[in-house]
Write a structure and sequence with these properties.
This protein has about 170 residues and is an alpha+beta fold. It contains five helices and seven strands. Helix 2 packs antiparallel against helix 3.
Amino acid sequence: MKHLIKNQIQYRDYPIHTDCEAIVSILDATGFFYPEEVDIALELINEKINYPDSSSYEFIFAEYQTTVVGYICYGKIPLTKASWDVYWIAVHPDFQGNGIGYSLLSKAEEKTVRHDGKHFYIETSGRKQYEPTHSFYLKAGYTISAVFKDFYADGDDKLVFYKKLTTIIP
């Protein structure tokens, strides 16, 4: 079944209005995010939808049979030469384990390199609940480059994962 799903995933790199509802559904289904975090995710996509030419946020969506099942939001960090951040990456729990997250991350890395990006950063919570997320980033070639103790709350550190991007061979 996983092989069948993986081969039927379509990717697109532009947002549409119905993606807002899909993002809320995905983030809620994961059980990882606080309501105020979901609000921030909506702010980012609404900025891209309403101001596509000035927004620095980039998106890639994974669709299965026209339903958005995952997405990544990333962008160049202002005032840097070649550093980019991953702001959000999430896959609906019903579709996790199919390589969709790795595909989204890989596609974002490739696009970043094409825009002369060299450094990719991902910030996330240090809570125990996020250990599978940490494993995901480590398996994708990222290292933990910084830990900010009690950043989000007492006992909730901020972890910054990092990967130096390499040039794509055509």
